[in-house]
Specification:
Elements: E1 6-11, H1 16-28, E2 35-39, H2 47-50, E3 53-60, H3 62-72, E4 79-83, H4 95-111, E5 117-129, E6 138-142, E7 145-150, E8 157-163, E9 166-173, E10 175-179, H5 187-190, E11 203-208, E12 218-220, E13 226-230, E14 236-240, E15 243-247, E16 253-267, H6 273-281, H7 284-288
Parallel strand pairs: 1-2, 1-3, 3-4
Antiparallel strand pairs: 5-6, 5-16, 7-10, 7-14, 8-9, 8-13, 10-11, 11-12, 13-16, 14-15
Length: 297
């Protein structure tokens, strides 16, 4: 790796231990001359560093990875996650194995390594478009999902929903989620959506606690355009990957489509490891190993 190509170490500012681990790795691997470090929340002002960064190491949980991806998506730098969160679907390494195995991923960037592969994940783009206009006032990108919901606690919202400019339904629900395959193990799952292989190119349209309209989720083609607009008298807000980005003004609509950006992860595990991770991280292993209950007769 050229010394002009940097390695970013990103940590969770709310968990001090993540910064300690990141700094320890930089020192132990002798990366002081090519590494830089910041919190995920500071990445928005690090464009000059990101332009010459060839690898991003994220120390934290899935939330830290999501926040990092939002900030670096236009720079095309691959990510390696070191899991210090609760679930860790997106992370590749544990803190215990990071010191020994991280050099493999650094070597891949400079020389290639047949043991490492690049995993590409589809992202979403959400454009908030004012009434009577075609140009968005705000565009955001998300790896997991874009959610349009009420900005008022304990109140349903009515959302006029179309797919590819064809009216689908009017949802009366707590919210409507548009998810990627990656996001299928996130908020969409808790709303009753399916679990999808994360490298799949597709979209999930999933209502949350629907009162009227379609109650089941829909699987859509990756080139679909979903438009959501709150009915008159309802106040809506938009969030991407769990971060609230904007309140909608009356008449504004949200158009959600495949993002031009792709999240790139470096993996040592083969794609089928997803099923092992699913078993471990959603507690399925524990449930599957419980002995059968004795019959009542």
């Amino acid at each position: 790796m050229s010394y002009t190509e940097k390695i970013a170490f990103v940590h969770n500012s709310q968990v001090p231990e993540t910064e300690k681990v990141a700094r320890g790795l930089i020192m132990s691997l002798n990366l002081q001359n090519r590494a830089w470090i910041c919190s995920a929340g500071e990445l928005q002002v690090k464009s000059a560093d990101l332009e010459t960064t060839s690898l991003v190491v994220v120390v934290g949980g899935d939330g830290t990875i999501l926040r990092t991806i939002r900030a670096i998506s236009s720079y095309n730098a691959p990510v390696v996650g070191i899991n210090m969160g609760k679930v860790g679907f997106m992370a590749e390494l544990s803190p215990r194995e990071a010191l020994e195995r991280l050099p493999e991923f650094i070597d891949f960037i400079s020389r290639g390594n047949e043991k490492i592969r690049v995993e590409q994940r589809m992202m979403l783009e959400a454009n908030i478009i004012p009434a009577g206009q075609n140009e968005p006032r705000l565009s955001v990108h998300a790896l997991n999902d874009v959610t349009v919901g009420t900005s008022t606690v304990s109140r349903l919202i009515e959302l006029n929903t179309s797919v590819n400019h064809v009216h689908l339904t009017n949802y009366r629900a707590d919210a409507v989620i548009v998810s990627t395959a990656t996001g299928s193990t996130g908020y969409a799952l808790s709303a009753g959506g399916p679990i999808v292989f994360p490298e799949a190119q597709m979209m999930i349209l999933q209502p949350v606690a629907a009162h009227t309209g379609l109650r089941d989720g829909l699987i859509l083609a990756p080139d679909s355009v979903v438009e959501l607009e709150a009915s008159k008298g309802y106040q809506a807000s938009v969030s991407a990957d769990g971060f609230v980005d904007s309140q909608l003004e009356p008449g504004e609509r949200v158009a959600i489509r495949k993002s031009p950006y792709t999240a790139r992860f470096l993996r040592a595990h083969q794609p089928d490891f997803f099923y092992t991770a699913l078993n471990m991280r959603l507690g399925l292993a524990y449930r599957s190993q419980r002995p059968p209950e004795e019959p009542d007769f």
